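FIELD: query
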Amino acid sequence: MTTQTAFITGAATGIGKSLVQKLDREGWQCFAGYNRQPPDALLATCSERTRAVRCNVADASSVSSAIAEIEAVLGDGALDLLVNNAAVVGGAGGGIENVDIDRFKALFEVNFWGPIRVTQAALPLIRRSARGRIVNVGSASQYLTIPMGSSYPVTKSALQRVTQALRAEMKPFSIQVTCLEPGGVQTEMLNITEEQEAELWDSFPERLLPLYKTHFKFPGDAIEASFAVWSPDKFAERVYRDIIRAKSLKPNYVIGPGVWLLPVIKRTLPDRAHERIFERMFRR
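FIELD: result
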C-alpha cells in the first residue's frame, strides 16, 4: 500500500502540530510547514516520515521553495492532502473607526492570500493523486459579530467564500476541497495576554478610548466566557475521523465544543435577532 502524503502549513504549534502528529501515527508521510519557529518539539514526537519545511505563506518565493523541496522528496509521487492552516490573529485590533489598515492588510496576506499562494503552488503535485484533497482552515469566529475584533474573522470569512469557488473549480478534476472552521480549541491564539489587551485599547486615540470602553467589553474576555475549549489533540482526532477519513467531503465542517450552533443561528434567525445576541455578548 502506497504511503499517503500531506503538507500542513503552520505546523509548529497548535492545530497544525496536532494534525501532523495524528497523521504520522496513522502512517502518513508529512511535511510540516513552519515560518519563524522551527517545529523541533513536533519532530521529536514523530517518525522519520515527517520532515519540517520552511514556508512563509505571505512570501511567494518562500512558498515556491517549500513546494520545490516537497517535490524533490516525492519525486514522481503525489501530494494527497494539503491543509492550509497557517494564520495570524493579532495586530489589527480596535474599532473599524481606527483600525490600522496596513496591519489589516497584513492579516489578509497570511490568512487569505497565503492559502491561495500555497494552493496554486501545490496543485501540480495534488493533481498526481488519485484522491487529492485541500482543506482550508477557516474559523467559527466568522459567524460572530465581534466589535473591536473583526479583522481576523473577516479574513476567515473571505477564505470560506474563496474555498467554495475552489471546490467548484476542482470538482471536475476529482480534487475535493473543504473549509474546516474550528472553534473552542486551546491554541496560542486563545492565550490572550494582558499585553495584547493593552495593545488593543492603546490603538484608540485618547478622544475615542473612553467612549469605546464605556460601551464594549474587551472581546477576548467575552469569547473566553462564552465557549468551552478542546485540546488540539482532541480536535485533531475529530478532524481525522470526520474529514480525512471521509469518503466524500462536505463543503465545510464546523468543529469544536458547541460551535455547531453558530451557523445554525446565522442561518435561521432574522438579522436583527442575530445582532442582539452578539450585542449582549460584547456590550457592557
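FIELD: remark
The chain has twelve helices and seven strands.
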